[in-house]
Amino acid sequence: MITRKSIALLALTAALAVFFFWNRNTAPSELEQQPPIVTLPKPPPPKPEVPMGKLIGEKLLHQYASDDTTLRDDLQAISRLSLSYITLVKNHANHPVGCNADLADAFHGKNPHQQRFLPDRHKVFNDEGEMIDRWQTPLFIHPVSAGRWEIRSAGPDRKLWTGDDLQLLPNGTFVEGFTKN
């Protein structure tokens, strides 16, 4: 039979259990009394300096005047670069290009958008900044209309208006030798 003492002891034990259970979460522990340790995230490592990519002209003229290409390839590459200039700069009418030096300046970033197409030192330029052919002779650039040029190489004899000249017309056809258009 259950005695009063047993019931009292059981009630006291239950009361103590409830007391400790409830106070266990509310009493601050030693760890909770200390300020929290804040771990800051590590700063990202410094970004490596990204090397400059090649300019569009360097990509288009990467084989300019090489042993693996012909003079026709060279003139077509100059024509493609000129077309890229017209396409990207758009308002080229405000910056007319009438000769070799004008077109070379435009490729160097002297254009309305200051967009560079070629670096200052490139095999297509001589020391005076003119565009040259594979025999180091300045190309003859003749404007036909806004954004359209005839591009002529003097050829291996390095003299313009002789039989070995090669000229690229705006329509993409070539004329060999000296002809009056």
Automatic annotation (TrEMBL):
Top-level taxon of origin: Bacteria
Full protein name: Uncharacterized protein
